[in-house]
Amino acid sequence: MTPLAGRLAVLTLLLGLCLPAAGAREALDRIVAVAGQEIVLASELEREVDELQARFYQRGQGVPPREQLRRQALERLVMQRLQLSHAERVGLRVDDATLDAAIERIAARNNLTRSQLRDALARQGRDFASFREGLREEITIRRLQQSVVQQEVEVTPEEVDAALETAAEQGATEYRVAHIRVGTPEGASPEALEQARRRAERLRRQALAEGADFATLARTFSDAASASDGGKLGWRLPSQLPQAFGDVVPGLEAGEVSPVVQAADGFHIIKLLDSRREGAQIVEETRARHILLETGSGVTDRDAEQRLRGFRERIRSGEASFAELARAHSDDEGTASGGGDLGWVRGGELAAALQERVEALEPGEISEPFRSRQGWHLVRVEQRRELDKAEEQRRARISRQIRQRKSQEALEQWLRKLREEAYVDYRLEGS
């Protein structure tokens, strides 16, 4: 039930999923924490610590003390248990068909067949059944978090207008930042705050060490919802940064790490990755449609390719429209209901394989079937246009920034509430 990173060399850098080990040592199988109605075993904790250590080794970084990693790993496992319990209470379950399709995609991304993936796991002493269930838990948690955010987040035109007005006043500089948060509960005692501050200062020293990778530290130690993405918040206007960041970020140089910053939700270490100012831009946009067929669950690459070739001939002969076939057959849930319409996009906004084919087609042309990491595609370019998209792009981007900020805030608030309301009993010495 621990993350994959560092556990399987052939998969480590690409998966970031779960891979429990088989045959845990009985001597370690004592309870180190109780989270609600669930328990965490010492054997699970040690595997998680091994995972975290491997991340640092792989990046050539100095490895933090094992006790520091152990405390962080235990909290991660506790939060995992609490989220899985909540998912069970609300009836959220990942079925076998979804799981099989995810495994097929994992294998394909690593240029492996399903059988080769199983063999690779076996060579590492890993149990495939445990791998499946670990992956099921990862998908369950991801879907649970998405459902929480969807219920809470809404962006109004008025919010976008206000952000645009503020941006004009501030000179329209945007910042791309990452951060590490050491969280503190509401009403934390002075002793607890001082302990959190010392932990944050220690993490800052590690971030400043030669060869340190800020993203790895964030993934390992940050309590923020952005931890899984290396602490990255994306491009933000000053008004869209967390309030405590506002006075700090503009004074940083690209690549610089801030002092520890205290906020209502804990202590933060901030790194400025980049900054930019935007002017008017003439861009080329393409509107296209696609049909996606995923493989797995009995659908082979050959099956998907042949089906798409059949669709292509039906469209070219006028027997069926591209939109009709996309609505009926595409596995892309985000575009199928709209007839596969990808909307107006510009370079870099689509997945690389899809972008390459779209750029190579003339309006009205239909591609041959081709494969990407998502599955097999058929694409048709509808239109192209050149226009000054500065204002419209800016508005859309600010809307996305607001949504992203609200999503992260909503998720962090929910996780914090889940943790504070849960019964958790730590049984690890020194915890």
Question: What key attributes describe this structure?
Answer:
13 helices, 4-stranded antiparallel beta sheet, alpha+beta
Number of helices: 13
Question: Outline, from the CA principal axes?
Answer: globular
Strand share of the residues? 15-25%
Helix content estimate: 40-55%
Secondary-structure-based class equals alpha+beta
Radius of gyration: 24 Å
Question: Largest sheet, described in full?
Answer: 4 strands, antiparallel
Calculate the terminal CA-CA distance, rounded to whole Å. Answer: 21 Å
Strand arrangement across the biggest beta sheet: 4-3-6-5
Low-confidence stretches: 1-28
Mean pLDDT: 85
Order of helices and strands: HEEHHHHHHEHHEEEEHHEHEEHE
Total count of strands: 11
Structure description:
- With 431 residues, this protein is an alpha+beta fold.
- Helix content is 47%, strand content 17%.
- The protein is built from 13 helices and eleven strands.
- The strands form three sheets. A four-stranded antiparallel sheet has the order 4-3-6-5, with helices on both faces.
- The longest helix has 32 residues, at 390-421.
- It is globular and about 75 Å long.
